[in-house]
Amino acid sequence: MGLLDRLLRKSVDEHAEVRPLWHAIVAVARTPRWYSELGLADTVPGRFDAVALVMALVLLRMEREPELASKSIRLTELFVTDMDAQLRETGLGDMVVGKHVSKLMGALGGRMDALRGGLAGTEPLDAALTRNMSVVEGATAAGLTAEVRALADLLDTCDAAGLLAGKIAP
User: Is residue 6 part of a domain?
Assistant: First the structure.
């Protein structure tokens, strides 16, 4: 295939199927109530925590359904791409972005483990959230815990098509 053929060929968006879900995850994480009522810190780390929290809940839901397993990989790729872009926007250079993205992926994995235990009842969910989230001083975990449980319950009721379409808002 010639250079001209490659340049004129339409590119395929390998993430098209999960892009609506990614946008829904970010929209849920940006819900003002998380910050104004539930005690999440309205800071860059707090907003990352919110995105990672919702992303972790969605990934936990997806891992329970074989049909969604491969799609969770594409969703995670969107997460990485977005985090990479956000880090670059803050002025980080190529030399350190990869390390920061690796740390963020580790944080996402840690949240998944904490939520898995908290939602299964092997550890208190409020303790898992308090340990893994940036909250404002004096905030209690009760409201955030209830909201996380409600979102997890909602995700459990979503079929694969609804989930991929991003129908995750309460």
Answer: no
